[in-house]
Amino acid sequence: MARIAVIDDDAGFRASLAEALDDFGHDVAEFASADLALTALATDPAALVFLDLRMPGMDGIAALEALKSRDRALPVVVLTAYATGENTIAAMRLGAFDHLTKPVGRADLEALRDRVLTGTATTSAPADSVAPGEIIGTSPAIREVQKRIGLAASGQATVLILGETGVGKELVARAIHRFSDRASRPFAAVNCAAIPADLLESELFGHERGAFTGAIGARRGRFREAEGGTILLDEIGDMAPATQAKILRVLEEREVVPLGGAPVAIDVRMIAATHRDLAERVEEGRFRADLYYRLAVLPIVVPPLRERVADIEAIARHLLARIRPASPPTLSKAALDSLSAWPWHGNVRELRNVLERAASLAPGRVIDAADLALAPSPRQTTSLPPPRRLAETVADAEIVAIRAALIRARGNRTEAARELGISRAALYDRLNRYGLTTLSENPTETVGGSDESSVV
């Protein structure tokens, strides 16, 4: 039995939550305000705290800061009926164990209780302030991304952002930088796929005068330009092997070597992003395994727009306000229905293009379904992928997840099963079903003998 504190000014919700926790066999202390809770918990601490975000007097963010200043290891679950990207990121960055939207289901509550009280809680360092967020949406999929951003912003670990083209991977990287303690320092973004391989090294690491034909002057390079801040290596999955080796050296040695020059120490946080399946590329020998391990310290998967349909209206209104800030157009119900039904293979980038066109061509201030021009032409229809059975789609997703887990676990099936949240027997069954036994029996070797236990 554990002592659990519930801090919420809503008497009905507070009593309901307390009753459920009491049914689970815990000692529950209820508080109608943060001030009362802080006074009581100073002498009679709790093992877990449920904290409402919006309360009169001291709000949840201020209370979270106060609780964490006393005990950084205390698991605090923030509750709100009005989840936003800003308050989710802020809470996670300050060290909240989780950020939940009311109401909370009994099964979810029990699962959360088990995670916290079995010692799996993780905390992060408190911060002085946060800036407004721009990660739009409140769907469960995007809220997981917002939580990850908050956790990533509180530390210095290397981050790997994964997702389809157009989902907003650079926006996620910028949010991590903006909410981190490096926010006042530079942010540099480099598209590794857009720069020829023979020029990318000079772009990243710089060069000395006379280092090669045409080098009439010295160049610092993007890493040194981002000193003290953050660098995003976008589309790193398309990087040439020779450059991959040099990026690995930067991560391990914390220094860059300009072409024709001597090593220079740097203090830059690295974030990588790609739409490629890096685990698959490692298996194929197209991406260094040791670099993959070093990049994927904290992975963030940004879901495609079709998996967060509930966010489309909010994103569309946000984009229209930026496209035409003086007098943003509104969307008719028919237009919203069309946007929600569209598959969005180009994700948010495609949505923005459609809205820009509609805002330019719509005769009035209301955009209707016809203004969106989303009906596919016969040529587009024939180019769409053929329909697939749900089981095939699920199998593809399982294969990708199992491959990644096995690579991270160096072929250790027990560890891979634990990461995937399934039993070892279930993993064996899937390995045989999908023909993945070769991968599991022959784990990818670390290239170059890097020390995987070293700290990034």
From TrEMBL:
Record keywords: Plasmid
Gene Ontology molecular function terms on file: ATP binding; sequence-specific DNA binding
InterPro entries given in the database record: AAA+_ATPase (IPR003593), AAA_lid_NorR (IPR058031), CheY-like_superfamily (IPR011006), Homeodomain-like_sf (IPR009057), HTH_Fis (IPR002197), P-loop_NTPase (IPR027417), Sig_transdc_resp-reg_receiver (IPR001789), Sigma_54_int (IPR002078)
PANTHER family: TRANSCRIPTIONAL REGULATORY PROTEIN
Identification of the protein by name: Putative two-component response regulator
Family matches, as Pfam families: AAA_lid_14 (PF25601), HTH_8 (PF02954), Response_reg (PF00072), Sigma54_activat (PF00158)
Listed PROSITE patterns: RESPONSE_REGULATORY, SIGMA54_INTERACT_1, SIGMA54_INTERACT_2, SIGMA54_INTERACT_4
Any one Gene Ontology BP term: regulation of DNA-templated transcription
